[in-house]
Structure formats: C-alpha cells, structure tokens
Write a structure and sequence with these properties.
single chain, mainly alpha, Growth Hormone, Chain: A, binds 2-acetamido-2-deoxy-beta-D-glucopyranose
Length: 596
C-alpha cells in the first residue's frame, strides 16, 4: 500500500480532506503519547535485532593464541610458556603472514618422545626435531577472551577454522527462509502474528543453541535462529514508523537506530565478557524476545495492513484507540471520509497488483538502475559484515574494539539527520563509502594494534552511513507500482552477501593485509557506483514503470543539491513538508513467490 500525498492541515470547521492513510494521522495525533510509547517499545526489539545479528560472533570466538596440547608434558609442573618452549616449533613463514599471528606455530608440534626428553632434563626444543600436526587437541590462552566458546570446545581451529564461518553462513541461509516464511505470515495473517511467531521461533532456537554439542546441531539451531533475523524487529519497526506522522519518521528511524542499536551492539561484548559462558550467553541474549509474548496486548496491529486486507472497520477502531490515548477528539465525519478513501485506495492498489518484480527488468534504463541498486546493497552488506568480522583479526582485545565500532552508529545517525536532506543521497553515499575506502587503506598502512583498529572504526562509520542511506535510496528510486516487491528483492539478494561476508577474513590466510585491502577496494567500487545512480532528494518519486525508467535522465552528473544553482533546485523542488518517506512503506511485504 503506497500512496504518497501531502498531509492536510487540521483546520476547524473545514471539511476534512483525507486521501491517504497519512492524512488521518494529524487528527489522531502524529507524535503524541501513544507514539512515544511505541518508540520506547522499540527498545527491547532493537536489542533483539542487535543480539541476533552479533551474538554468534561471541559464541564462536577463538583466542588468537592456541597451541598443540601434549599430554606427556602434564604432571611435570611446567608453565604454559615452558610447555611451548619445549614442544611447539616457531611459526612457519605462511603462519607468520596471518594477521594476529603468534611467534609459535598454532597447528604443529614436535614429533618426539617427550617422556625421554624430560627425563634427560631437556627443557628447550631443538629446531631440528621432526614436526607433526596437533594430535591431542589444543590449549588456548584465555587471558583476552575469558571463556571457552563452542569453537574452542569443539576445536574449530587450524584446518577446521572455517566451521565457525560455515555456522555463520547457516544463520544467514536461515534468514532467507525466514524472510519468505514470516513475510508470508505478515501479509496473510497480520503483522502481530508474524512478530510473535518470529520472536518465539528465535527464542526457542536461541535457547536450543545452548544445548548443542556438535557442529551439525549447532548449525541447525543457528539456522532456525536465523529465520527470525530481521523480521523479529522489522515488523514492529514498520508499524511504529507507519503510525508516526511523516515529518517525524526520519527522526524516529534515525534515533531508534542511533540510540538503541548503538547501545545494544556496544553493550553486547561486555555482556559476553561478564557472563563468560557461551551457553548462558545464548540464553541471556534470547531474553529480550520474551517481550514479544505480550505483543498481542501491547503492540497495535498495523492499520495499513487492516486496510490492505479489507478490514477497514478494524483499522478505524485502531485509529480511535490512538485518538483516545493521545487525548484527541475526532469528529465522526473524519472517519467517514477516511473509510471512503480507503475503499478507493484498495481499488487503486488492486490495479497495481498486476505487476511483479520481473517488470523492473522490462525497461532497459530501469533494469540498469535496479541491477545497480542490487549491487549497491550487496557491496554495502559485504563491506559492513567484512568490517565486523575483521575485528576478530585486528585486535586481541576484541571486546573493546567491537564495542567502540558499534558506537559509531550514533554519530552516523546524527550526520544523517544533519546532512542527508541537504547533500542528497548520491553525494553523501559517495562521500561515506569513499571515506570508508580511504580509511581501510590507511588501516593497512598503520602499525598493527590500536592505530589499525582506530582507522578500521572510522571506516566502519562510513559504511554505517552508507547502509542507512541505502535503506532509503532504493525505496525512493523504484516506481511505486513495484516498490515493495523491488525492495524485498534487493534485501533478499542482500542475504547472499551476508552468507559470503564471514569468508572475507580468510583472505588473511594469503596475506595479513588482504582483508582490509579487499574491503577498501569494494568500498571504492561502491562509492563510484553510487555516482552512477540518479539523485532522489527533492524529486517527485516515480509512480509508473515508465517514470521509473526516465527517472533522473535530466540530472547532470555534477549536480549536488546543496550547491545547486537555484533554478535547478526550484525546478525539481517538491513540497517537502509531509513527504512520506517511502523507505518505510510496505517494506515488510515480501515477494510473493507464487507470482514470480
Ligand atoms: C612447581 O613450580 C613452581 C615454580 O616453578 C614451584 O614454586 C612449585 O613448588 C612447583 N610445584 C611442585 C609440585 O613441584
Ligand atoms: C597469554 O596472553 C597474555 C596476554 O596477551 C600474555 O601476557 C601471556 O604471556 C600469554 N600466555 C601464553 C602462555 O602465551
């Protein structure tokens, strides 16, 4: 349901003109008591979102320093250092190239008879001794990471190190399935059932994760947890955004991300640190999802969903409840007028329904824009995840650096609020990704440790900004008739990038600086790709496929909204007040597979 109409001023005595859902919001209160309540209600669900996204990072964390366990050395009262000196060869040249490498080998030990050697009084290894791979498991240095993760318990190290990433991929495979399943539920049975079902599944599977003892059971549990990723939060997020008046939407969206998400994501490392037990951690991080169980009593169903599914009376009941809580008196004729326009909206919507995502590829220019938007999103997710997982390699004190990197969501939100509507999506997207690329390369060149981490964190700020722009950009550029489906398509393809994201860090096996170099190059590609897209700021949003195809044809490459000649600005300036942000319209509606 996507109808873009400027909101109407409430004037006493005038006959109400209500042509779209947004027009009724001023009558029932657009940023009042009920909306504040909803804004606070977002808090636990933002925690759910951040915890789902990042918890697996902490339950599969492996200390950098690990070495072969040699049972023969036990019982001789040797310290770890003495054991390493006696039984572990120095790291090979390949091993040393890896970021965060240790001086000793992590996967090899000397192949000698230790009892005899110890009896002879030898305490220092002879480098000419033969070498073999670890035979009796590993020992780990838990100074920096004070708990045994599942990856430590099951020893996903050396040639089995990829299992941690494989489990992360399983999680995102789950999220593709979940996107389809819960998207279907949201469209056919309502947003609240989808919200509750999604969080229940996530909760049960997160608790089940705690009882896993093998790679395959862990993968299965994480895949089921993955199904709830995104929708467990998105469904409510969209409901809240819908009920907030258009002019407050960007603010509410940015603030919930800037405050709640930054808070949740930067708190998580410390929760992991203090709990120091991966099983308890996976149960504790599931707790915010419990709030969803009381969801049906505290979360209002989406009135837009009621309207699209033909239950106009229920939508009006819901709006009356808003009016009551917000202390507004609404005349009966307002609702009558609303009901009438709802009916015509439904008819109009049905005429839209004949379109599918495939229509996006029927016009050459629109097809090009769509493909560029998909690549935009893929690269952005890839760079974002790459920077998140790469933190593992950069710094032994991963808790602090992860926490600081997550806090960059806050300045990102502030910068967006200040500049996005002045500089435009295109140049700001370019600038933020360019910044990200530059700082990725500076991070390569700076000495390892704190300086590299600091540079990587600034790079992360850039990709955070680009991520938030991307969310809005696609929705503004795709024509109304296929907007919801197009945005879903882009998001679902984006999960593929999530699935591949964790593997970027394996480039470090070739060369320590390669992950950051790759992230830097991807950022530059992304930045210049952005310049190839049309600007959407202050433009009339395309309605039909033809308009979508012609969108931005007349824009000059160098046009920057904030320094544009006044003529150009005037020509394309649309009434900004009350502009619906299309990013928040219908993005929960997923692709209907049956119509592809
Ligand atoms: C083990 O070694 C430490 C110092 O190397 C020594 O203080 C301690 O008494 C030894 N314990 C035994 C049981 O030999
Ligand atoms: C474990 O790590 C700490 C801190 O990095 C270090 O001081 C200590 O020497 C390490 N222990 C071993 C046995 O390598």
């Amino acid at each position: 349901m996507t109808v873009m109409v400027e909101s109407v001023k409430v004037e006493e005595g005038e006959r109400p003109k209500i042509m779209a859902f947004d027009d009724i919001l001023p009558y029932v209160g657009e940023a009042s008591r009920y909306q504040w309540f909803l804004f606070f209600l977002l808090l636990p669900f933002t925690f759910v979102y951040a915890f789902l996204y990042f918890t697996q990072f902490f339950i599969t964390l492996v200390p950098n320093e690990h070495w072969c366990n040699v049972p023969d050395l036990n019982g001789w009262n040797l310290t770890d250092h003495e054991k390493i000196t006696l039984s572990i060869p120095p790291a090979s040249r390949e091993e040393l190239k890896v970021e965060g490498a240790t001086a000793f080998s992590r996967c090899n030990m000397y192949d000698v008879n230790y009892r005899e050697i110890l009896k002879n009084g030898t305490r220092i290894a002879d480098h000419s001794w033969p070498i073999k791979t670890c035979q009796h498991g590993w020992s780990f240095n838990h100074t920096m990471i004070p708990y045994k993760s599942i990856a430590v318990e099951l020893e996903w190290v050396c040639d089995r190190a990829f299992l941690g990433s494989a489990a992360q991929s399983a999680f995102f495979v789950g999220s593709i399935l979940g996107g389809l399943i819960f998207g279907y539920i949201a469209d056919h049975y309502g947003r609240i059932p989808a919200l509750v079902a999604c969080n229940s599944v996530g909760f049960v599977a997160s608790v089940a994760t705690a009882f896993c003892n093998s790679f395959w059971s862990f993968c299965l549990a994480r895949m089921v947890v993955g199904t709830s990723f995104d929708n467990c939060f998105n469904v409510l997020f969209i409901i809240v955004i819908e009920y907030v008046g258009p002019k407050y939407r960007t603010l509410v969206a940015n603030m919930s991300f800037g405050l709640y998400f930054a808070g949740a994501a930067s708190l998580l490392p410390w929760i992991a640190y203090w709990i120091a037990n991966w099983r308890i951690l996976s149960i504790v991080t599931a707790c915010p999802m419990v709030v969803a169980f009381v969801g049906p009593w505290i979360v209002p169903e989406s009135a837009r969903w009621y309207i699209t599914s033909g239950k106009i009376d229920k939508a009006i009941d819901m709006l009356k409840k808003f009016a009551k809580v917000n202390g507004k008196d609404v005349k009966k004729e307002v609702f009558d007028e609303f009901e009438k326009s709802c009916k015509s909206m439904i008819e109009k919507d049905q005429s839209h329904n004949q379109y599918t995502v495939l229509d996006l590829f029927k016009f050459p220019r629109l097809a090009r824009i769509t493909i560029m938007l998909i690549i935009y999103w893929l690269l952005m997710v890839w760079v974002f995840d790459g920077h998140v997982w790469n933190m593992k390699l950069l710094d032994p004190d991963v808790f602090t650096s992860f926490s600081l990197a997550s806090l960059t969501e806050l300045p990102a939100a502030v910068l967006l609020a200040l500049f996005l509507d002045r500089w435009g999506r295109r140049w700001m997207g370019f600038a933020s990704m360019f910044l990200c690329g530059i700082f990725s390369f500076i991070a390569v060149a700076t000495p390892p440790g704190a300086p590299t981490v600091a540079m990587a964190i600034i790079a992360r700020l850039g990709v955070n900004i680009a991520a938030n722009i991307g969310f809005q950009y696609a929705a503004e550029m795709l024509p109304t008739v296929v907007r919801a489906q197009g945005v879903s398509l882009i998001h679902i393809i984006g999960y593929l990038a999530h699935i591949m994201g964790p593997y970027i860090i394996y480039l470090a096996d070739i060369d320590a600086s390669l992950p950051l170099v790759a992230l830097g190059l991807l950022s530059f590609v992304h930045a210049f790709l952005t310049l190839g897209l049309p600007e959407t700021l202050n433009q009339d949003l395309p309605e039909t496929l033809q308009e979508g195809n012609d969108f931005g044809k007349d824009q000059s490459f160098w046009w920057i909204p904030c320094v544009a000649s006044s003529q150009m600005t005037k020509k394309s300036l649309r009434k900004k007040k009350g502009l619906s942000n299309p990013a928040f319209v219908g993005s929960v509606q997923k692709i209907d597979c049956t119509r592809l």
